[in-house]
Amino acid sequence: MKGLVFIFCCLAGLSGCASSGRQTVAQDANFIIIKPLPQDDLTSLAIAYLGHPQDASIIARYNPQLNLSKGDVVAIPKRNFNPAAVYVNGYQSIPILCYHQFSAGPANNSMVVSANNFEQQMAYLQQHDYRVISLQEFHHFTQGQQALPEKSVVITIDDGYKSYLEIAYPILKKYGFASTLFIYPDFIGVGSALNWRDVGFLNNDPLVDIQSHSKSHDNLSPKAGGENSSAYLQRLATEVLDTDKILQQKIQRTAQYFAYPYGNTSQQLIDLLAKQHYQLGLTVKKGSNPTFASPYLLNRTMIYADDNLTTFVKQLDGFKQVNLK
């Protein structure tokens, strides 16, 4: 650490200026070297310099032998030095969780998560310092534009059931967690679904990201026996482009992410999404996603009614141990 300080002193020169009472020892375009306050820990430094308490793990990456109790100076990164998020002992891989419906009482089918279970799951994320990120932040991560803390997770909800607004949304708001809601317009306003007024309300919340789940929730794989190429491409255009028009008309939203109904896709659909304004396509294949994951074949892990806290926690592994020496 002393050698690192010497390098930055040579590059930038000593500085007596302070940030929130902390002395800036040196800085350049890459790092700022600071003398922490006696009461500082990595969390307080992460809040002050990186904006999120969970980003403490990012500071720890650049200060492996740091001892704050001995008055060590701290190197705060100004940019992402490892855009691939690949290390000698493995690589970072972000879990994307997928929910559908919620219930006030015990769940009555596998696709419904009870309010009690969802509350416990979100409380666990907060209590164990997980950072719930948006799909936009995840996309920036895959592009090498943003470093993420080791404990990062994305929350998505499919279809557009009203139980999202009535049950999940208040819990997410309680913890300040972002979520992406994938809707299909043919469902909105029908039965147990949200209506467009609900969707508009949610769209105005910066913690909620409304995205496309097709128009009708049809299986978008080619139909076996009878659907020719022209008919298939026309069906895809209806499911993607018509939904775009509806979202623009109803909530002035240009979708950037597409959740495949039933998780099924095809090269033709991927090509269509790529030609439009879509940056990511999401399946329901279980697993997490490294920076080098295919952007149109992203994994998502379904959370079911019978997932207790133990099984839920197993879905959160954000680092794949691999010896890459």
TrEMBL record:
Residues 151-325 form the NodB homology domain. Keywords: Signal. GO terms for cellular component: extracellular region. SUPFAM superfamilies: Glycoside hydrolase/deacetylase. The keyword Signal applies. Its main location: secreted. It comes from the Bacteria. Residues 1-20 form the signal peptide. GO terms for biological process: carbohydrate metabolic process. GO terms for molecular function: hydrolase activity, acting on carbon-nitrogen (but not peptide) bonds. Pfam families: Polysacc_deac_1. It is found in: Secreted. This is NodB homology domain-containing protein. It comes from Paraglaciecola hydrolytica. The lineage of its organism: Bacteria, Pseudomonadati, Pseudomonadota, Gammaproteobacteria, Alteromonadales.
